[in-house]
């Protein structure tokens, strides 16, 4: 639309973008967030952590900081572990559809064996609802590979 208009009649694009953004933001609600799969997964993890560390007093800041550090370390290590092989990934590939990563060789082997049986492949990441993983959905995760390689040096 802007390309067709004369320069004098071009609308205030910044204002238009802001209006659209405000309209989209007004449609968002807390109920949308609470039904989000990632939000629900995070809240479940939080509940589990609270159960595990319920005995820690609020005044024990050093212990709480240690737990936070442990959570961060554990989370980063989990990113390196293939959900199929349960081993550290050497050639990680990311699923473009659901965003999960796997060891390339392991997921390709599963896809090929299920294809021979004419069956779909469900994402092996626990809790994921994606039930049709295809070879064409997989892309090398170079960033994760670099992080894993640098961690191992």
Task: Spell out the blueprint of helices and strands.
Blueprint lengths: L12 H15 L2 H5 L2 H16 L8 H18 L13 E4 L5 E3 H13 L21 E3 L1 H11 L1
Structure notes:
By secondary structure, the protein is mainly α. It has a domain at 92-152: Zinc/RING finger domain, C3HC4 (zinc finger) (Herpes Virus-1), CATH 3.30.40. Helices cover 51% and strands 7% of the residues. It has helices spanning 13-27, 30-34, 37-52, 61-78, 104-116, 142-152, and strands at 92-95, 101-103, 138-140. A three-stranded antiparallel β-sheet has the order 2-1-3. It is extended. The model is unreliable at 55-60 and 71-75 (pLDDT under 50).
Largest sheet: 3 strands, antiparallel
- The total beta strand count reads 3
What share of residues is helical?
A: 40-55%
Order of helices and strands: HHHHEEHEH
Question: Averaged pLDDT, please?
Answer: 79
Shape label: extended
What is the CATH architecture annotation of the domain at 92-152? 2-Layer Sandwich
Beta-strand portion reads 5-15%
N- and C-termini, Cα separation = 54 Å
Q: Class of the domain at 92-152 in CATH?
A: Alpha Beta
Q: Counting H and I runs of at least 4 residues, what is the number of helices?
A: 6
CATH topology of the domain at 92-152: Herpes Virus-1
Strand order of the largest sheet: 2-1-3
Secondary-structure class: mainly alpha
| Unreliable segments of 5+ consecutive residues | 55-60, 71-75
Instruction: Write out the CATH superfamily name of the domain at 92-152.
Output: Zinc/RING finger domain, C3HC4 (zinc finger)
């Amino acid at each position: 639309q802007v390309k067709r208009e004369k320069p004098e009649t071009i609308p205030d694009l910044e204002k238009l973008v802001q209006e659209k953004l405000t309209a989209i933001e007004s449609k968002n609600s807390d109920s949308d967030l609470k039904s989000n799969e990632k939000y629900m997964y995070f809240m479940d993890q939080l509940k589990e952590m609270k159960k595990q560390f319920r005995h820690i007093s609020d005044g024990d800041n050093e212990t709480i900081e240690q737990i936070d550090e442990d959570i961060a370390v554990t989370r980063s290590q989990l990113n390196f572990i293939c959900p199929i092989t349960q081993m550290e990934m050497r050639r990680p590939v990311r699923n473009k559809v659901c965003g999960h990563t796997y060891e390339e060789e392991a997921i390709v082997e599963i896809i090929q064996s299920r294809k021979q049986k004419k069956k779909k492949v469900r994402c092996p990441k626990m809790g994921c609802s994606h039930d049709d993983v295809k070879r064409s959905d997989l892309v090398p995760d170079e960033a994760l590979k670099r992080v894993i390689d640098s961690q191992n040096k």
